[in-house]
Amino acid sequence: xxxxxxxxxxxxxxxxxxxxxxxxxxxxxxxxxxxxxxxxxxxxxxxxxxxxxxxxxxxxxxxxxxxxxxxxxxxxxxxxxxxxxxxxxxxxxxxxxxxxxxxxxxxxxxxxxxxxxxxxxxxxxxxxxxxxxxxxxxxxxxxx
Length: 144
Fold this sequence. Notes:
Strand content: 15-25%
Distance between the termini: 14 Å
Number of helices: 6
CATH topology: Rossmann fold
Order of helices and strands: EHEHHEHEHEH
């Protein structure tokens, strides 16, 4: 399965550790994660080698071609919100799905639009620990 893993790049990077756990589990189950570079500590430097237009075109190509978008939405990020909205806006035509994850401890700082997402193509799940994330990813993407 081709998976677009969305996480904050320029905003609050507190969810990066969670993103790394999610990515590792997805790859453990044999899935292709299109956006592993977003988890690097120097992502902003690496991404600055591209123009904003190049990033937009590349990411829209990946968003259009992924089977599932997994979003770590614990940090404030216009980009993650855009990515989720883009996939959900097309989901009826494309059959794409979204798994939206957020840290329960940050609930008060996360948009109610995210936490309340009840779109039929989206599953929204809060987690309380990295072990929770492992369990959630295994449940949704495990091979058995």
